[in-house]
Amino acid sequence: MSGSLSRPHVLVMSEITVDGKLTLKRGASSKILMKYMDPKTEILLHQTRAEYDAIMVGSTTIRIDNSMLTVRLVEGESPLRVIPNSHADLPLDANVMGPDAPTIIAVAETAPPENVERMKEKGVEVVVAGRDHVDYPLLMHILTTEYGVKKLMVEGGPTLNYYMLNNNLVDEVRLIHLPFIVGGADTPSLVGGMHIDSEDEMFRLVLKKHYTCGSNLVTEYDVLNHGSDR
Fold this sequence. Notes:
By secondary structure, the chain is an alpha/beta fold. 23% of the residues lie in helices and 24% in strands. It has helices at 31-34, 39-51, 59-65, 113-121, 136-147, 158-166; strands at 9-17, 54-56, 80-84, 103-107, 125-128, 151-154, 172-178, 204-213, 216-224.
């Protein structure tokens, strides 16, 4: 399906520990680790936000981190905020419901109408993309054709990153490496989702750039989408 629909260029950007973790433990905010990023790397993150038309994170990230997803450390406009939320059940006092930047909440057709109305009353835009859950290729198509989004940045957790990769919707990955090991068998890592059965199912990347930004190593990859001739 993703090959037949138009979509934006997609970058997944994330900070990770040496052992590939996003947080200290399940349920912990990623902001705990982000505060150890070099100030120059924080600027890089906000510069990247300013360069993109839209930024997307998942519902769990909003619930745990209460992210603002705005440009604050550099000059530039904040991107359109996009939150997939199938059941329209995000907290109404979440920062993304505020006026700092425009926000789209993507819901399923089966989302309770009263939830949708409460979100609209907060001033955010609600789009329907999928029947029982958010259809990510369809959402990408809507963002491109109805909102003019050409470049989308994903600062997602493991579930959102998996859905985007599994639907062949990611073009680039940029990682900020933090010099820590946190361990934990169930500590969230960069990509969650289903276990794979063979190496044929791996998401293959090509390293295109690596550099230090302050005290942090940054690596940049192109994604070779599996099952696709992109």
